[in-house]
Request: fold
Amino acid sequence: MNRINELFGIKYPIIQGGMIWCSGWELASAVSNAGGLGLIGSGSMYPEVLRQHIRKCKAATNNSFGVNIPLLYPDIEDHINIIIQEGVKVVFTSAGNPKKYTSRLQSYGIKVAHVIANKKFAIKCVEAGVDAIVAEGFEAGGHNGVDEITTMCLIPMIADTVNVPLIAAGGIASGKAMLAAIILGADGVQMGSRFVASKECSAHINFKNKVVVAGEGETDLTLKELTAVRLIKNGFYNQIQKAYTENATHKELKDLLGRGRAKKGMFEGNLEEGELEIGQVSAMINTIMPVEKIIKEVIDEFESERNRISTLKF
Ligand code: NDP
Ligand code: NDP
Reply:
């Protein structure tokens, strides 16, 4: 039995990444109903909004689902309390130190996974006693580590370093990529960008359409001085680049980012002024599909590729 399937009680070892403004209850429950693990992205939700999403998710699926909490979230104590009160069974933490909440959540029977982007943080996860690790490569969309380690290098390195169930993320949107990640040492995969271009994703249709037309080289990992983020190059991105050429200070960059850029871009659909967080693999995503179809295509391709390579002889 696959360790990730067993840990979360799911059919396929496919996790849907928790993504601000994109993964509400509708996406999370659709992924869980299709046999994966859906995650509500709580980073963009006020505490009572999160509670409503959890309740709607529970009503929409009998399968396991979870909540992702970026540890940078301002009202994190409220989120943790709501998760405990509502009986959520799985939490994925990211962007911070896993020592802070892991054992408390586990004392309520919650399984905890933490997202990392290098070996040093993977070791911290083991020390914190997490149940699983998500290792996210440079290709990934949204917030990311600053070391620029690609999924191809990161996954085998983490698999050789720790012995906790391992989920690969960054650049995975197909059955081929899922098979590759498992061959590199992962037990399962986390996909974000592929699920943005889904019917059930809560993002604005302008953003979904932008993801579909994005080609190679159209994203960049920037703002490393603040919180590194991979986004689509647009008017807002050009303003950042201009600020860099003018040797902008930390404060000037922060002021330029302002408040609510991610909401403006991904939720309100302002493609020029907003922040459009997506992974490099958007270049290979060409359709908006229902979640069930996405997961079926990934699993079918995984099986056919597994058969194809099993016949290889050298
Ligand atoms: P900003 O500071 O620019 O804006 C805050 C946004 O979050 C607003 O749009 C606000 O909604 C919403 N929000 C939800 N709950 C709260 C709260 N308790 N206090 C203040 N604002 C709240 O932040 P970002 O939009 O860049 O990021 C928001 C959160 O998402 C952060 O916690 C960040 O760590 C996380 N994040 C996680 C990512 C990931 O990959 N997991 C990627 C990017 C961000 P409103 O406009 O309706 O007031
Ligand atoms: P700091 O960078 O000062 O970090 C606060 C504490 O959390 C430090 O002890 C730091 O370890 C630790 N820490 C930070 N990120 C991780 C992690 N992913 N896993 C384990 N421990 C971690 O303050 P911030 O709270 O502002 O953290 C922002 C940092 O998080 C940035 O460096 C950013 O690159 C990273 N980040 C990582 C993401 C990911 O893993 N996908 C997502 C978003 C942000 P230490 O003292 O050893 O550095």
